[in-house]
Write a structure and sequence with these properties.
By secondary structure, the protein is an alpha+beta fold. It contains 8 helices and 16 strands. Helix content is about 20%, strand content about 35%. The strands form 4 sheets. Strands 5-4-7-8-9 form a 5-stranded mixed sheet. It has a 5-stranded antiparallel sheet with strand order 14-13-12-15-16, covered by helices on one side.
Length: about 300
């Protein structure tokens, strides 16, 4: 299963996932998989590693007091780091595995200020996002950064929203965001995410000094976390698998289930994505599976539960 999750993670960060975030989060929790990003062998090191965020599914489990913390939308796009030296943009990288990313400087010069009124060496991190009106907007944003043609990239509907600067010049994080905003960036504290994809809420300690004193684990800072919604699945039996041709001509497998009530709907079928998904979950006719309604609409098998 870990190898399967590695393949899912690689596909996600390359902008071509074949399961939803909800499904990936649930599978990761079930099998204690906490690796973020994927390894790039031909990349460049981030000046400061890009940590992931701890996931929390109930505010009662928050790792610190929310007094003095600020909430902001968790945008669902492609994370990027920008390196400014003496106020000039010198390097932009995709997130990669958080330590090494791919050079996308030429593309990011079209989206962010090329010069800012901040001295020294500063790493600004944020998210490249696309409007929710674009189908598969998260994949669209990631795919845009992977385009080979600058002409094609210039036609993409993407923008960059900053959510951190290291080192900052203020004692409070939200004031650092104000500095970036005044320098010409869109920043998460002022960004209207209504029409953009999000996958949770980020809570962060506002006092920069106190935030840093919390320290870091090998994966994430202790001074921030992402509140995410986790749906519980419903068990039922996999009766059969049939193959159907979609509107695009792609043949995909569909699970035939012993009908089960999820929310206000009776579910008798669920998508299985492709043969790799079936093999990865170890599915067999007659096995018991856990089913969720992804986005409260599409039924999907989350895992096999009788192994």
């Amino acid at each position: 299963m870990i190898e399967f999750l590695e393949r899912l993670s690689k596909a996600y960060y390359e902008g071509r996932p074949f399961i939803t975030d909800t499904e990936f989060d649930a599978l990761s929790a079930r099998y204690n998989y906490n690796k973020i990003g994927h390894t790039i062998t031909d990349g460049i090191k981030h000046y400061i590693p890009m940590s992931s965020l701890q996931k929390v599914f109930d505010l009662e489990d928050a790792p610190f007091s929310l007094n003095g913390a600020i909430a902001s939308p968790k945008l669902d796009g492609a994370a990027v780091s920008l390196l400014y030296v003496g106020g000039k943009l010198e390097l932009a990288l995709t997130r990669g595995d958080g330590k090494v990313g791919r050079d996308i400087t030429a593309k990011m010069r079209r989206l962010v200020p090329n010069e800012i009124p901040l001295d020294g060496v500063r790493q600004i991190t944020g998210e490249v996002v696309s409007p929710s009106s674009i189908p598969n907007s998260r994949n669209y944003a990631s795919g845009a950064l992977n385009t080979k043609s600058m002409t094609e990239f210039a036609q993409k509907e993407v923008q960059f929203v900053a959510y951190d600067v290291q080192p900052g010049s203020c004692t409070l994080w939200h004031n650092n965001m104000d500095v970036l905003n005044n320098a010409g960036f869109q920043v998460i504290t002022k960004f209207d995410a209504t029409n953009y994809p999000t996958d949770g809420v980020v809570y962060r300690i506002d006092c920069v000094d106190f935030y840093e004193k919390q320290g870091y684990t090998s994966h994430h800072p202790r001074g921030a976390f992402a509140l995410k919604e986790q749906k519980d699945g419903v068990p039922t039996k996999l009766l059969d698998v049939v193959w159907q041709v979609g509107k695009s001509g792609v043949v995909s497998p569909v699970a035939i289930l012993d009908p089960v009530l999820i929310g206000d709907a009776t579910i008798a079928k669920a998508t299985l994505h492709n043969i790799e998904y079936i093999r990865g979950l170890g599915l067999e006719i007659g096995c018991t599976v856990e089913v969720i309604r992804s986005g409260e609409i599409i039924p999907r098998i989350l895992r096999r539960i009788d192994q």
